[in-house]
Design brief:
The chain is an alpha+beta fold. It contains five helices and three strands, in the order αααβααββ.
Amino acid sequence: MTDNHAAVEAALEEMITTARAHLAAVRDAKGEIDSDEVWRAYVAFNNAAVSYDEVLSSTYGEPLPWEVEAIDPEKADKFAADLVAAESEPDDPHPRVVSVRQRRDYHVPSISALIKAAELARIEVSMGTQEEPITTVADALLELLQSSDGSLAALDIPELEPLDGIVTVAEVDKAFEPDDYAESDANGPYQLADNDKLVARLDEHLTGELFEDEE
């Protein structure tokens, strides 16, 4: 047995040993993500394969059937540590809920015309089902909103003349839960708690620029 062949055999045994160590680390990790032991075993296995590829190629001119590149263990450890640290940090340094609140007023030139518009909107989506008649402005507005899945765009109709409005944006600690407020509570859902923070206000005017003021 030549010295070169002995070197090939030794490199092969080292690659097999590191491969088994890598398998054992993977098994012991039991699915743990970013295991340090698995990563170090992987680097050792990879570098042993590189060494075997080099001595195999230099001795017999035959490379491994897969490509391998050496990994610097120190750089690899630093890269893995930085990756884990980045994943452990929150994506947003301000993990709060953004709350958008809007008020828009309308003038109703004709109640009967508004009710008729709501009845037409109902016909388009009701598919002939029987429902309570629309008799008030509140009924008409709710019908228009429900017919468009709650979008305020449903109120952009000739039967309603838009007046001034306002939009506020706030950072809040807790997301809105409708069940926390009674149906008769008109103010509670719109009030900010002590720890909530108003971050912007947009005033919507009937004339001029749509949004004129910002804070």
